[in-house]
Design goal:
By secondary structure, the chain is an alpha+beta fold. It folds into two domains: about 200 residues, no CATH class; about 150 residues, Reverse transcriptase/Diguanylate cyclase domain (Alpha-Beta Plaits). Strands 2-3-1-4-5 form a five-stranded mixed beta sheet, sandwiched between helices. Helix 2 packs antiparallel against helix 3 and helix 10 crosses helix 11. The radius of gyration is 35 Å and the shape is elongated.
């Protein structure tokens, strides 16, 4: 569609080009890489952040519900054990302290004074300390009293591993679990060594061996499950991001032709079903080939990026806009009749002309506009808009040309 008139040649003189070409080309290349990199990172990070926020919100809700239940359970166990006279000296003080601490961090989490991550750290550390001291007292009692190790408490040992992989990230949970395992293994070695002086208790020996084997099994299984879960979540998030990028133009970071075709199909069905107006605006940059030839493709790409962003910022949030191909762009104006679409196209044309996207000369664009009628397909709308664009360029460029639905299209 681009011609080669003398008017354009006068605007871009050879001498001016020779002086600034190399510098502008280098600057444009750097700016374009930064702009595209930042835009791509921004869209990817926003997508990931949205999904992460959903997960964090679900975690926060679970913590807010489970923490009061944990406090009630602790106080219930403390009261029942005290009533029947089987409350150990450690639990006599540990249960109320833990209940108070959980209430305190619950209030902080409810008031959003601490993060979910901090809540998880505090909860795990407190539980870790309690379980470590409890195991030590149980083993010490078995050593000096010559009795069997209390097996009822040992049944709760897996809870510390489960809690770690539930509250912490996979790496910290694994480290915490290994530290706890080494700790109880060291205590077990001590009790077995000291048992030689008072007689080895086979029950204690086999119970500790079973505890260590079970702990190793719990850690391995929980680590594998957490790794698979994390891998699945990351894969799902990256799949969503890649799907979005597949529908995005890599240069302008706007919708690409594939996404626009899908969206136009959807809007056609919606407009036909609800009898709503719909218009298509197609435009391209006048003499874009000459910009590439004289200033280089980096400058041309920068012109495309700036043009796309200017138009996107000038449209409504309900309108879809993207790059159709080359220097051609398409706007899908929803709930827009023909007159409003013409007004919109004319406003965009003036904004682009006055924007001075290329400092050495104004950039102009030619527009083709058409409206939807029942029975139209995506191909019909695009062909009519493209015909309007062709006539706008044939009539002198930098203008808007509207094609009515009953126009005869070239074969």
């Amino acid at each position: 569609m681009d011609g080669n008139p003398a008017k354009f040649t006068q605007k871009f003189s050879t001498s001016a080009y020779c002086k600034a070409c190399k510098k502008k080309y280098t600057e444009a290349t750097k700016r374009l890489k930064v702009l595209n990199g930042l835009e791509s990172m921004k869209k990817t990070s926003l997508k990931v952040k949205a999904q992460t926020d959903t997960v964090q919100a679900a975690k926060r809700l679970i913590f807010l519900v489970s923490t009061p239940l944990a406090v009630i359970c602790l106080l219930f166990l403390w009261g029942v054990s005290f009533y029947i006279g089987e409350l150990a000296w450690l639990d006599q003080y540990a249960y109320p302290i833990m209940a108070y601490f959980f209430c305190f961090i619950f209030v902080l989490l409810w008031s959003k004074l601490i993060s979910i991550k901090s809540f998880g750290y505090f909860t795990y550390c407190l539980t870790f300390i309690y379980f470590s001291i409890k195991i030590y007292t149980v083993l010490q009692g078995a050593i000096f009293d010559g009795t069997q190790i209390e097996s009822n408490f040992l049944l709760w040992i897996p809870f510390i591993y489960i809690l770690g992989f539930s509250l912490l990230d996979i790496r910290r949970a694994l480290v915490g679990s290994l530290i706890f395992f080494i700790l109880i293994a060291s205590m077990g070695v001590i009790i077995l060594v000291q048992s030689d002086s008072i007689g080895v208790n086979p029950h204690n020996f086999y119970l500790l061996i079973e505890l260590y084997l079970a702990s190793m099994f719990y850690v391995i299984i929980l680590y594998m499950m957490s790794y698979i879960r994390e891998y699945y979540i990351n894969s799902q998030m990256m799949s969503d991001v890649n799907s979005k990028l597949a529908m995005t133009d890599s240069l302008t970071m706007m919708d690409n032709r594939r996404q626009l075709e899908i969206y136009i199909d959807e809007e056609i069905k919606r407009s036909d079903r609800h009898r709503l107006p719909l218009a298509i605006i197609m435009f391209d940059i006048d003499y874009f080939k000459h910009i590439n030839d004289r200033y280089g493709h980096a400058i041309g790409d920068l012109v495309l990026v700036k043009t796309a962003r200017l138009v996107r910022n000038s449209l409504r949030s309900t309108d879809r806009f993207g790059r159709w191909g080359g220097d051609e762009f398409v706007c899908v104006a929803t709930n827009t009749d023909e007159d409003t679409a013409n007004f919109l196209a004319e406003r965009l044309r003036k904004e682009l002309e006055q924007a001075h996207i290329l400092n050495s000369s104004p950039i102009t664009c030619s527009f083709g506009v058409t409206r939807f009628v029942s029975g139209d397909s995506t191909d019909d709308l695009i062909r009519r808009a493209d015909l309007g664009l062709f006539r706008a360029k044939a009539n002198g460029r930098n203008q808007v040309n509207t094609i009515s639905p009953d126009a005869t299209l070239p074969v």
